[in-house]
Amino acid sequence: MTIVRDDAAQARGGEAPVHSRSDPHRTGPEGSPGREPPSLATLFWTHAMVGATGFGGSIVWLRRLMVEERGWLTAEEFNNGLSIAQFMPGPNVFNLIAAVSRHLRGTTGMVVSSIAIMTVPLIFVLILGMLYARFGDVPAVKNAMQGIAPVAAGLMLSFGLKTAAAPSLRNPIALVAVLTFVAVVFFRLSLPVVLATMGPLGVLMASRRVR
Predict the structure, then answer these.
(1) What is the pTM of this model?
(2) What pLDDT does 136 receive?
């Protein structure tokens, strides 16, 4: 993917938006060639909608929107961005949105998207928090919370399967993903330990593959 800037916008004294020029050899529904970067208004309303409807984890809906529906990223580009987001401190969703929006529309796009993704969930959390503090002991409310848990788990499972099916993982480097899964689920290693061991191993295998 080639990143180009609008020199005319720079000459006018404004910030040059970052445009994503797709690979002409890219085919298929994911990452269609020749797509124009979204407008700031599109970024705002899209991420506001994700924040308002992303129950069970916005990362699931973000992948569907960015890769499958809008074609802003390919599956491999999304996985690369998610990998960086997971290594950075802070929520993965917020880190990913900031990075992708910066890539698509520059710093202004990053700020607009960050505000959009936080505003609606913040309002929901404040309202639901007050309601739960008052009605949390009601049996119907407890049953509802228990019923939502498996739905959220199913959403994350579907996201994990789609991520694992990306082209970048259809090679021996997928062994790193398997080892990471085993280390976290069966050996219950802490996140710093997993990152310190699996991260360098993945980088090493990827560099050997490129050579």
Answers:
(1) 0.56
(2) 75
